[in-house]
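User: For a reading group we're discussing how well predicted structures match intuition. Take Isochorismatase family protein. Before you show the prediction, I'll give you the sequence so everyone sees exactly what went in.
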Amino acid sequence: MALTTLDRKTALIVVDLQKGIIDAPFIEPIVPVIDRSATLLRAFRKRNLPVILVNAAGGAPGRTEQPRRHTEPLPVGFTDFIPQIDQQPTDIVVTKRSWGAFATTDLDYRLKFLDVTQVVIIGVATGTGVEATARQAYEAGFNVALVVDAMTDTRPEAHEYSIRNIFPRLGETATTEDIINELGKRDV
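Assistant: Thanks. Here is the predicted 3D structure of Isochorismatase family protein, as structure tokens, for the group to look at:
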């Protein structure tokens, strides 16, 4: 369902826009995704709404059929956020060791402590970090909005499947412009 509204207390969750991931072979150019993300970050900060910056510092420990990436110590700077994020002292930083930002962190507690009822999710990769975070947010009782032009993936089929089939079941989809317009209604 397309975006209908933003709750009074909405937080922006930025998934994995970090130095160690940003050079992946994404299906769409990453620069516009970064630019839209920076626009959303400025808009949320301007209105003193919570901003959550999520980085990945490893993975879940279970066995898988596919070879694990990053099984050795991560390179220096891997988890650092890209400069365009312009990390601020008021931002909440969450370091995850699973696909989703809620499973191995205290993010649920921190958002509920701030009386957040809705999350807007952006970042990479659509079919893993973004989708897992959206699933976990939905299951934790948050209203979820997914900004489809501020995310991408390395796999076109995963990106499209998440946007067309999964996201409408977890919340509402939107564009950066939709979110900015909704936030602008608060300024009147």
